[in-house]
């Protein structure tokens, strides 16, 4: 299993993350080309080697060409910008998830709706580039799992658009409220809201107990250089060390409820909301309740980081008035995604491995449908053609 691990001993910001991803192996030309798909003028990305306290790495800086013309944006403006772009659906979804985390935190801090949040730092071009760039780099690296150490937040006070604020900034404190953090290593803002949101949106597991083989190390250089602590973000590209098994076990939560009085048409909307929030699986089980009433058990598998959000979605979008939850252990096979050439065109195929051996493969269903439509074939015919090339 291919793993991306964030070692946030000195915190994380959007530009440090971009530098670290490039230093780890993300192609800078691919990143720049991806950002150009946003079709926004007025900025460019500068990538260069730099050093902090004897540690060399990559510094990424978003250069705003006309700062006086820089405009603030609301969430809907950012969403429209990303949705109109020609970025992949995966990059769009991840970018929007990160923005939504920040918008939700800012809305709670200022007691307003998400759509009413007036983005200052986040709506600016540099933050748009940092966030969309993070999604582009993660998509490029094609990792199976993202892990992180506890996040160093820093200490002291920070100056922002609303004045002098304590560290962590109120929005940052809300974003990281369900993940392990540390404070006080330095007397400045070590982790920005953008950096925090990138981690919370992408990391599958927060732990400082690592058990993998490090294949490559990258360093993202921060803009600040005023502390004895090197202002860098360290990242590892790694593989699981258990070659004989190659499965991963992780803690997860099952959230369930019984529903007997809801319009069945509502389930599709509810499922979409739950999957968009990051649920690993959502399913219904037919049951018989008291007085022989037919009903369904709604089951949602998720990690602890999003459990509260999952519960809120269920309460807001279903008729249940109660939930139950219990911890489970999830075991996952090693998986790899490969692009293969077929007589119908290129297709992404997911391969699964157990004890080092390939045991199954599965083409992406959306691509099967697309090829079937393009070539006037049935799904069965397309699958047989692809199978010959796997």
Major β-sheet strand ordering: 15-16-14-17-18-19
In helices, the fraction of residues equals 25-40%
**Largest sheet properties:** 6 strands, antiparallel
What's the count of strands? 19
Write the layout of secondary structure elements.
Elements: E1 2-7, H1 14-24, H2 28-36, E2 43-52, E3 55-64, E4 73-74, H3 75-84, H4 89-110, E5 118-119, H5 125-141, E6 145-148, E7 151-152, E8 157-160, E9 163-166, H6 170-175, E10 181-182, H7 193-202, E11 205-206, E12 212-221, E13 232-240, E14 247-259, H8 266-276, E15 281-288, E16 294-302, H9 307-317, E17 324-342, E18 345-354, E19 357-363, H10 365-375, H11 379-389
Parallel strand pairs: 1-6, 6-11, 7-10
Antiparallel strand pairs: 1-13, 2-3, 4-5, 8-9, 12-13, 14-16, 14-17, 15-16, 17-18, 18-19
Helix pairs in contact: 1-5, 2-5, 3-4, 4-5, 4-7, 8-9, 10-11
What does this structure look like?
With 390 residues, this protein is an alpha+beta fold. It has 3 domains: 239 residues, no CATH class; 79 residues, 2-Layer Sandwich (Alpha-Beta Plaits); 58 residues, no CATH class. Helix content is 33%, strand content 34%. It has 11 helices and 19 strands. It has a 6-stranded antiparallel β-sheet, with helices on both faces. It has a 5-stranded mixed β-sheet with strand order 11-6-1-13-12. A two-stranded antiparallel sheet has the order 2-3. The radius of gyration is 22 Å and the shape is globular. The model has no long low-confidence stretch (mean pLDDT 89).
List keywords for this structure.
about 35% helix; about 400 residues; 6-stranded antiparallel beta sheet; Alpha-Beta Plaits; 3 domains; 5-stranded mixed beta sheet; alpha+beta
